[in-house]
């Protein structure tokens, strides 16, 4: 049983990295697949809520549950502080890193909008509505 709980914690940590990568770079998927814009918008809004409003992150909760159940210390402040701050960027550049991430997301969305306008002007399908099929 302990190995399953440990595996759940490692899976949550791995999914955290995937989630973080999608938050930062997922908007670029909308350049090729316009419907992904809506998925990325939702994910980015949730991530923004975690950072700004201090919403709970279910992946952090799973990882902390696994850590506690296997006798390891829980993450004190969450995934970003535990794994990225001080590793990916220096602690004193936390706000700078947030601005860079926001700029990357804004550029990806601006590019998606620009491509959508080009497709629409050419008579193709633009950015589909949320409920569009096909």
UniProtKB/TrEMBL annotation:
Where are the membrane-spanning stretches? Answer: 6-25, 37-55, 99-116
Lineage top rank: taxon: Bacteria
Q: Cross-referenced Pfam families, in alphabetical order?
A: DUF2784
Q: Which UniProt keywords apply?
A: Membrane, Transmembrane, Transmembrane helix
Q: Which InterPro entries match?
A: DUF2784
What is this protein identified as? DUF2784 domain-containing protein
């Amino acid at each position: 049983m302990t190995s399953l709980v440990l595996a759940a914690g490692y899976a949550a940590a791995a999914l955290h990295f995937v989630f973080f990568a999608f938050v930062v770079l997922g908007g670029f998927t909308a350049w090729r697949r316009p419907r992904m814009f809506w998925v990325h918008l939702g994910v980015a809004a949730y991530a923004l809520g975690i950072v700004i409003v201090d919403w709970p992150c279910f992946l952090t909760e799973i990882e902390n549950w696994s850590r506690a159940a296997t006798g390891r210390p829980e993450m004190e402040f969450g995934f970003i502080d535990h794994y990225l701050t001080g590793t990916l960027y220096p602690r004193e550049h936390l706000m700078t890193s947030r601005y860079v991430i926001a700029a990357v997301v804004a550029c990806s969305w601006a590019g998606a909008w620009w491509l959508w306008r080009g497709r629409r002007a050419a008579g193709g399908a633009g950015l589909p509505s949320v409920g569009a099929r096909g």
